[in-house]
Amino acid sequence: MHRKINRSFLITAIILIVARFFIFTVNDVDASVIDELRDRIADRNTKIQELEKEIVKYQDDLEEVGEEKQTLTNEVKTLDISRQKIGADIRLTQSKIDSTGLQIEELSYDIGTKQTKIGKNTEAIARTIRAINEIESDSLIEIVLSNNNLSEFLNQIETLQQFQSTMRDDVKRLTTLKDDLEDKKSNTEKKKKELANFKGDLSDQKWVLDINRKDKNTLLSITKNKESNYQNLLDEKVEARKAFEKELLDLESQLKIEIDPNKIPPAGKGVLAWPLDSVKVTQYFGNTKFARSGGYNGSGHNGVDFRASSGTKVKTALTGTVEAVGDTDKVKGCYSYGKYALVKHNNGLTTLYAHLSYIKVRKGDTVITGDTVGYSGKTGYSTGPHLHFTVYASQGVRIVRYGDYKAKTNCADAYIPVAPLNAYLNPMDYL
What we know:
Layout: H1 2-23, H2 28-66, H3 72-136, H4 140-146, H5 150-223, H6 227-254, E1 281-283, H7 289-292, E2 304-307, E3 313-315, E4 320-327, E5 339-345, E6 349-359, E7 366-367, E8 372-376, E9 386-393, E10 398-401, E11 415-418, E12 424-425
Antiparallel strand pairs: 1-2, 2-9, 3-8, 4-5, 4-7, 5-6, 6-8, 6-9, 9-12, 10-11
Helix pairs in contact: 1-3, 2-3, 3-5
């Protein structure tokens, strides 16, 4: 019995030592693969930083051109720079896709390594338990009698204690490895979601690029590349816009819809999220200096305008349901909101996102705060790419076929959001 137990101790000890050597030593092949992945990720991240700088330069160029007089040359220049910026956006998104894919690959490799280590630690624990059980299966008297002297008995007890201590260490390591594995799996799922979002962005940006090309071709076709024709086109748009603003003011002044203030959230910062990642207000709500000088037919601005070059992602300001999407440009001579999306929220507010180049959502969609509604542009009547953002009291806003309320109008077949004047709220009170 004595010789059998000691031999078992020796074999088990050797197994545990060997097991630990493999469990906690990363071989050269594993290290090489991980290092290569990390180098490729670092390379992609460097490209991402370079593209982000390039995009900032295009944005600066667009702002500079936007401050100059509206001419055909400047309009074409704006479209060209926008196309270059959107192209850089596409390359940036592709780089993010590549980087995220590599990060998922690294995490997957790490998960495989962790699972292998967990397996080996589990085996080590099982061996330790079997060794302890072999000792503890003998009664204390049998162990004492099987040893020639007290010293050998005490050595065997000490060995048993060492095995128990070893098992506790193995259990701790196993717990740490499993926790780490769960973190890796969670991070992988997060990265996979990011990857799906990036791929969606890439598809959208390609659409925006196509729209930009069509806009340029349409502009050159209409104006026949002549400045005089372009200026005539601008004059026509201005007159049509003024007519529409007067019609809308007359209509909304006549609307009588009671607005219960108890159904509107109190003003406060953060009630709504900013609809853009980078915020620059170019026109505030209400009786602004521009409005007092004759803009908006002197009725005041019914929303807030944000600077946003064509193709900038526009995000929903709060979770809600898409009440309507539309495109007033489909009705010839109707220079209004262009492509727009209207989102109704659960707190009594409804938000409008207008002059979009591309609409991402559809009527009836449920959107969460920060979801992409569309991409900015200059559809409808717009002197340059920007986002028009309106906040309504939900009780008052309606989507109507404009011709049902106005017999004589260029916008008869357009479906447009309308509301009584008291239903328009200052967005800055909630952002």
